[in-house]
Amino acid sequence: MKRAFLPIALCTSFTACNSDSRSPDEHAAAQAALSGPAVSLQVVADDPPSLSGGAVLVDGVYDLVANKVYVGPGGDTSSVPRTLVAERLIIDGGKIKFVATQKGETTSALASLTFCGAGLGLTFTSGPNTGMTRALGFRAEGDELEILDQNQARTYVVRTGTEMGVEQPATGAACKQAPGVCGGLANIGPWVVEQSATADAPVGTGGALLLDTPYVMNSDVYYNDAPPSGSRDKITLVVHADTTFEFVSEIDHEGALRLSGTYTTVGNLLTFNVTCSPFGAVPLPFNYNAQRGLLQTIQTGGPNHDTGTECMTYHAVK
Fold first, then answer.
1. Of 203, 229, 197, 214, whose CA–CA distance to 308 is shortest?
2. Can you give the residue range of the structural domain that contains 218?
3. pTM to 2 decimals?
4. CATH of residue 32
């Protein structure tokens, strides 16, 4: 799956993509703590739901009962494997523990919680993702808690614990990223079809970016005979004066991907430090033409191709 400048892997649980170095005894203890049902991943040809927040499920144990990936209206529902996963959440004193079993492997993760309206912020405090924050959407209603992570929605039902609590005050990173899915940037760009070219690819020379202004992609070209996938992309990017950025991308019938974090420019490198969702640093050679308001990012071996150089050109919407 191509998501603009980032190679993205689907994780069917919050812990599935984490490495795990626990001892056999720790694995056994985690497995003993997990007795929720095994849930099959469902692929839905529709847009992800809009989640409304609400009261917060406080201390208790919650079992996963539904796991859905939304691929957009008319999307290909056969492209995602139907993986089985059992997952349990344990919420205790503003912290949340995920315990999951998938393909015979049991993994766990621990994070602190912040809330803001329909936003739910997770800051991981143990494991390989320590210090990383994910901003998610959520809905709390009755005994259900639904969490939206990009185009994937998980529904949990309380097994033991207290009833719904009072909505939490606006605090932490989740507030900055409300409505809760890595920002609410509108995707105002046109649909762009990938192209291929046999000429030499551009070389990054840097430049002084225009800040606090949306950039929309208007060209996506693969050089050096890299065959295009033929998909249509729609991307809007904003780099702010406070060194944060917001990014939203759509691909034919796959729903929106939202990313945010910080950025730096050093010489001809524009580096995105993606903290929501956490993908780490993505350095890209770039060109900026201030007179024309054009930004071009350059990546060799784009996410959809093993060879060739992908060049995305954006123009500033003033």
1. 197
2. 192-316
3. 0.54
4. 2.40.128.280
**Tokens read off for 246:** 């917001």
Q: Can you tell me whether residue 172 is helix, strand or coil? A: helix
Residue 14 lies in a domain: yes
Q: In whole angstroms, what is the distance from residue 248 CA to residue 191 CA? A: 13
185, part of any domain: no
97 and 150 inside one domain: yes
What residue type is 209 in one-letter code?
Answer: L
- Enclosing H/E stretch for 310: strand 309-316
User: 143 and 201 in one domain?
Assistant: no
Question: What pLDDT digit, counting tens, does each position of 57-106 carry?
Answer: 567 788 889 999 887 777 777 766 667 888 888 887 778 888 887 777 77
Angle at 97 between CA 1 and CA 70, to 5 degrees: 30
Claim to verify: residue 170 and residue 221 sit in the same structural domain: no
